[in-house]
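Box S1 | Example of a co-folding query
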Amino acid sequence: TLNIAVLVSGRGSNLQSIIDNIENGYIPNAAVKVVISDKGDAYALERAEVHDIVPVFVDPSSFGDKKDYENKILEVLGKYDTNLVLLAGYMRILGSRIIGKYRNSIMNIHPALLPSFMGLHAQKQTLDYGVKVAGCTVHFVDEGMDTGPIVLQRCVPVLEGDDEESLSERILEQEHIIYPEAVKLFVENRLVVDGRKVSIT
Ligand code: GAR
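Box S1 (continued) | Returned holo structure for glycinamide ribonucleotide
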């Protein structure tokens, strides 16, 4: 069984979609062992508890510098023999030591069609720019922000009268489809990374 750790900061609906798709058998031979949050009141931690997954709050403000915070995360990942790290609404840049140690074993979901609209408030950036097609991206995490090799993408239309909330909701529905799909492909060892390119075998 492959051990998954999920890093979160908030609501955790993407975490939920992974848990549900493991429980219903769509993602085989995998278990979410631990959910790590940088926010003590993240609803995602409650979701973890409901499913008997260990919730861990790592408070960034209680560490002297970023390195100590990173070490704490590494310690938790090690404790649960983590094979795959999923960022699911985790609103921080992951430290380079974690990325180095789990190269091509960390994925993120981003609510835009990368490489457009990297960073925060991607859906608002999408609306403000006036593009007609929006979407979401699952990618491997490298040292940049939202720059790593792309695994899967889905698009949705931007509709007349959309606001940030309505567009975000339309995108989120697709996030809940492609993140479990990407995790399934990873678990089945079907993702091959070659430079920027990810092929599905
Ligand atoms: C999702 O839309 C995710 O794509 C986005 O935050 C939301 C988290 O929702 N992530 C980012 O913007 C990362 N920069 P969730 O907590 O319900 O999964």
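The helical segments are 13-23, 43-50, 66-79, 96-101, 122-129, 164-187. The mean pLDDT is 98.
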